[in-house]
Amino acid sequence: MPKVAVIGAGTMGHGIAELFAMAGYEVALVDVADEYLKRALQNIEWSLKKLAEKGQLKEDPSAVLSRIRPVVGDVCSAVVGVELMVEAVVEDIEVKKRVFAEADRCAPPEAILATNTSSLPITEIAEAVKPERKTKVVGMHFFNPPVLMPLVEVIKGQYTSDETVKKVAEYAQKLGKQTVVVNRDVPGFIVNRILARVNEAACWMVARGEATIQEVDSALIYKAGLPMGAFILMDYTGIDVICFIGDAMLKRGFKSHPCPLILEKCQQKKYGVKSGEGFYKYPAPGKFQWP
Length: 291
Ligand code: 3HC
Description:
Elements: E1 3-7, H1 11-22, E2 26-31, H2 34-53, H3 61-65, E3 68-72, H4 75-79, E4 84-87, H5 93-106, E5 112-115, H6 122-126, E6 137-141, E7 151-155, H7 162-174, E8 178-182, H8 191-207, H9 213-222, H10 230-237, H11 239-251, H12 260-267
This protein binds 3-hydroxybutanoyl-coenzyme A.
3-hydroxybutanoyl-coenzyme A binds at residues 47, 50-51, 118, 143-145, 147-149, 192, 195, 227-228, 233, 237, 241.
């Protein structure tokens, strides 16, 4: 069975691991503590059962789950024999570089090392690996929830080869995804760059008293036809992640006018669904429910 490793078992990592296991890969799923892995496996089980109920899974959920091997902390042992690693750890360039350096040391020379970063430069992450691996470092950016969202952005850094981009697009297609190749390693790539503007515009309308949160979200859902309004989507994505993305883009020269309402939520640790409160309240933290 082909092997992959997913590093980071949070919101994105567990969904990415689930997708690869559904497509028949043996997946090593790494996180720093056993409790994060347990929660990830519970979330995957819940999601697989949902898909099975709807006839969208071609085998028993337990068969898919049996292909996911939880690994506490040890990136090196997880990447032995893999053809692909997808890193989905916290949006901190130093942490990501440490993961890439370790994976580079232990993965087979031909393995591709991909990052699911939302906004950090692929080229800078590639600085952590040996010169001969740099062509194999690439962005593979999924959207939340990875199992349901159809798009994967494949991002080419300065050193990424066309062959690597092609292979990663093929992996995404095997997972049933549509791909867009982002040829320039620009801040926020395509989707997050546009979403950042939408979030900022929505937030400033509320901050200036021109509309309420509910009015903005209703307009976006019932008129623009979006599946979620800007505020509920920020809660769903995690407002901490929105702040990381904003910060990373600002540092890379993306001209923006950060909105105080978003920054306040980050300072108050009101991160949205994951913490039980963001712009809306969620009675069961970690479980999304329409407010
Ligand atoms: N696995 C399996 N099933 C799931 C699931 C998962 N991970 N998450 C939700 N579902 C199920 C729900 O339980 C529900 O099942 P039911 O029909 O049995 O009740 C079903 O999917 C539909 O869900 P909902 O009723 O909650 O609502 P929706 O029809 O609105 O669908 C949604 C949910 C697909 C998340 C939709 O609201 C949506 O597309 N929202 C926008 C998400 C988006 O834009 N994501 C991208 C954010 S940006 C990003 O991720 C980039 C990163 O870098 C930050």
